[in-house]
Amino acid sequence: MKLSTDRILTTHVGSLPRPQEVVDLLFAQDRGEAVDQAKFNETMRRAVADAVARQAEAGVDIASDGEMSKISYATYIRHRLTGFEGDSARPTPQDLDDFPEYRDRLVKAGHSATYRRPVCKGPVKVKSLQAVEQDIAHMKEALSKAKVVEGFMNAVSPGTIAVFQPNEHYPSHETYLEALASAMREEYEMIVKSGLLLQLDCPDLAMGRHTRFKNLSDDEFLRYAALQVEALNHALANVPADRVRMHICWGNYEGSHVHDIDCAKIFPIVIKAKPQALLVEGANPRHEHEWESWTRIHLPEDKVLVPGVIASSSNYVEHPEVVAQRLVRYANVVGRERVIAGTDCGFGTFAGFGPVFPAFCWMKLRSLAEGARLASKKLWGHAGAAH
Description:
The chain is an alpha/beta fold. The protein has one domain (about 20-380): TIM Barrel (Alpha-Beta Barrel). It is about 40% helix and about 10% strand. The protein contains eleven helices and eight strands. It has helices at about 20-30, 35-60, 95, 100-110, 130-145, 160-165, 175-195, 220-235, 265-270, 320-335, 360-380; strands at about 60-65, 85, 120, 150-155, 195-200, 245-250, 275-280, 305. β6 (about 245-250), α9 (about 265-270) and β7 form a beta-alpha-beta unit. α2 packs parallel to α5, α2 packs across α11 and α8 (about 220-235) runs parallel beside α9 (about 265-270). The longest helix has 23 residues, at about 360-380. It is globular and about 60 Å long. The mean pLDDT is about 95.
């Protein structure tokens, strides 16, 4: 992957606001309705082309397809793998359970998506790779017409599937993870072989603590997290580390987040994962202070950090100087060549839903790019060559 060798590069976590025609098709597909495949593919192709062009215009160096074809980062696999069916209850974050009136207000205001969260009721195997092939084709076509440094594509981690899709088939969490890792390996390898960077979304390693595993102790949760990292590494056995990024977050919602597990507890486990780049939260009020934790947590020499310097659950548009200050803090700790500017989470975690007004998303990405230029001047004495 391209690194910040002469300036701070910019990227984001992946999901972007979807056009309404995309949202309508995704929900029709999720409900099991007949969807014209040619119309679906053409709609996604146009949406990806627009998303990549807008990222380039905003100044994003390492762009994504916006996850246009996916209703959510975790449940899209029900259309690609066997063994998943039905729906299940959503494990509410503990900080929202603490205040039911606030939780219900968020739901009423439309902050809770109505997509299905299936259950594993049979053997997990690859159903079809056609959707992956289409996603790759749309992204590569869009990249050929946009002036960006590199492109990446998101995929869900085995641990996140296990945390958000309950298991009613396999005898244990470990055997469920093993099956998921084997099934997802093909998608991971296909993305990397296409020339795109692979990003693994891993909220299971942080948000999982106060959702699915909220009734466990920290030590019990950390044992599960270690198993999930092992499963991820198993799935990446044939993929070079320098072609993979992983995103860890505590949940992209506007809550108190007082139950978020401390990064100092989880990152000694996270850094054992194979991906070279770690995308972490660093802009919101609950995690901005954690830049200092990297003075105590040793980031392996072969890894880079992509801190969130733009919040993804607030409609404030960060001033470029704030972005630059945040980036310089990280650079002073881990080294300027090992920092890429990122966002806390995605701007379209679920299709049709998001705490940030869509127009503000693009304003935030422009501020990200301008802040990175300011930080580059402070760190290198120049802004570097733009893409």
